[in-house]
């Protein structure tokens, strides 16, 4: 068994069907005649995603097709089931006794809207404009209106646009409600992602209490952080993830062969050279709540205490997103939970993180709807120049996880040997670090022949989550660091 096999997601649908990223597409259990009829009706072609094309559900052998066909409908079904099962609790929480019937009726309406969204997903219907009180309504409607006519449905459009649209539309149903404003469909999943991994939290805490200011230890922290994504509660079996957490801590170097690109030395040099007396900011574009967020806080703590950053800014999502992505509420809840934990060591560390917030060593960045938009990052300078300018103040911008990687690369299947800097298409607000488990066909910066060698060993290497990337793009020449 390889060190990464415990993170394999072959059984995700059984382990936790609220999936955000999954393992190799499985054979459908539908009769072949039904499959053929579906493919014919919605113009699905039995091909992999072509080189230089964006990921799309119209390619049957793509991760996009698997996601749209098998994964996202289950996400919506789980939301419906949860709201139906907990309707009494939700009504009691969000409405007074005087409005109980009205709240129940509204809850029923929202469940109906989610069912309709699921139907539209499964029948490749067109995207609809947003017509409520969404703060980002104009941006979304302009984006949808500018799409080519042939790319405005779930399967025919870019899968990045389709998935972002689905999660944005899903939240709009409660956002525009009377009683359920602020409800997070996935809050309990995210809380369990932390509370269910406290043994690993304690182990990581103890592992990092005597840190060394060396490139080797820093590289270990980057790998620990990279593999903490195996705790993605939206897609990874909890028991397997926890087994991997302890194995990584026991022997970090055993994972080296599964890190396809390792620029840890370049990232170390970026943060330890130059004018270190000058205030130095690092930005984290966060991914998942739970153990992964805790690992992010540990890495940020190290940067601050070792003089590599005077401040670390954390960017969270404006609303519930892709099941387990961190929101402001998740971030604050995590610090509160840690600081009040029964274990003295964990509680002390939680209080320390909260003190860092008070002192300005940690900072929550202003909420930006860009992170929950369908835009690729190469459009940030035009669509959100204020956000782009704020990132230019940073010495290093750390992008976490699969979705951020897909947005960095515009969801395009570039040649795997193409340099990441080229694939960014001009997006370079500062030095860039990427920590990502490979879960889709989107990848760049590999050595010549690496992709072919991996494919011969494991045909599903791109979607298994068993391989990772620690990549760096140097922005120093442009910004004079």
From TrEMBL:
GO BP term, example: methylation
Gene3D superfamilies noted in UniProt: 1.20.930.60, Uncharacterised protein PF01937, DUF89, domain 3 (3.40.50.10880)
Catalytic reaction annotation: L-glutamyl-[protein] + S-adenosyl-L-methionine = [protein]-L-glutamate 5-O-methyl ester + S-adenosyl-L-homocysteine; beta-D-fructose 6-phosphate = dihydroxyacetone + D-glyceraldehyde 3-phosphate; beta-D-fructose 1-phosphate + H2O = D-fructose + phosphate
Presence of the UniProt keyword Transferase in the record: yes
Residue ranges occupied by any Damage-control phosphatase ARMT1-like metal-binding domain in the UniProt entry: 69-449
Family assignment from sequence similarity: Belongs to the damage-control phosphatase family. Sugar phosphate phosphatase III subfamily.
The protein's name in its UniProt record: Sugar phosphate phosphatase
Organism of origin: Drosophila kikkawai
């Amino acid at each position: 068994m390889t060190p990464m096999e415990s993170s394999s997601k072959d059984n995700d649908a059984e382990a936790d069907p609220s999936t955000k990223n999954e393992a190799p597409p499985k054979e459908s259990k539908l009769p072949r005649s039904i499959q053929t009829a579906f493919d014919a009706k919605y113009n699905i072609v039995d091909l992999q995603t072509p080189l230089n094309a964006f990921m799309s559900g119209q390619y049957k052998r793509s991760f996009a097709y698997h996601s749209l066909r098998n994964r996202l409908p289950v996400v919506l079904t789980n939301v419906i089931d949860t709201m139906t099962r907990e309707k009494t609790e939700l009504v009691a929480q969000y409405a007074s006794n005087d409005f109980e019937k009205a709240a129940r009726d509204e809850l029923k309406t929202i469940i109906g809207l989610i069912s309709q969204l699921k139907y539209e997903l499964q029948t490749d219907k067109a995207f609809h404009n947003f017509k409520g009180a969404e703060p980002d309504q104009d941006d979304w409607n302009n984006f949808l209106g500018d799409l080519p006519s042939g790319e405005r449905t779930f399967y025919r459009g870019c899968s990045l646009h389709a998935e972002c649209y689905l999660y944005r539309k899903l939240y709009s149903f409660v956002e525009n409600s009377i009683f359920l404003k602020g409800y997070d469909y996935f809050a309990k999943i995210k809380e369990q992602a932390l509370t269910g991994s406290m043994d690993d939290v304690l182990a990581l805490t103890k592992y990092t209490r005597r840190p060394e200011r060396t490139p080797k230890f820093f590289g270990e922290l980057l790998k620990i952080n990279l593999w903490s994504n195996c705790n993605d509660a939206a897609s990874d079996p909890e028991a397997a993830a926890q087994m991997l957490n302890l194995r990584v801590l026991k022997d970090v170097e055993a994972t080296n062969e599964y890190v396809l690109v390792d620029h840890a030395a370049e990232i170390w040099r970026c943060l330890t050279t130059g004018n270190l007396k000058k205030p130095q900011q690092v930005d984290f574009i966060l991914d998942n709540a739970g153990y992964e967020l805790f690992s992010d806080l540990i890495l940020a703590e190290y940067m601050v205490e070792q003089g590599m950053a005077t401040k670390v800014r954390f960017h969270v999502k404006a609303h519930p997103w892709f099941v387990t992505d961190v929101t402001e509420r998740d971030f604050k809840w995590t610090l509160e939970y840690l600081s009040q934990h029964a274990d003295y060591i964990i509680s002390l560390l939680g209080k320390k993180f909260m003190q860092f917030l008070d002192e300005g060593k940690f900072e929550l960045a202003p909420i930006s709807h860009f992170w929950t938009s369908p835009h690729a990052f190469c459009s940030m300078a035009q669509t959100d120049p204020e956000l782009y300018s704020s990132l230019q103040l940073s010495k290093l911008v750390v992008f976490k996880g699969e979705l951020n990687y897909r947005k960095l690369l515009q969801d395009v299947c570039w040649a795997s040997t193409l340099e990441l800097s080229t694939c960014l298409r001009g997006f370079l607000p500062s030095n860039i670090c990427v920590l990502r488990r490979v879960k889709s066909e989107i990848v760049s910066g590999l050595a010549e022949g690496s992709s072919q060698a991996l494919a011969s060993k494991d045909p599903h290497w791109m979607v298994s989550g068993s391989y990772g990337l620690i990549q760096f793009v140097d922005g120093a020449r442009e910004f004079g660091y």
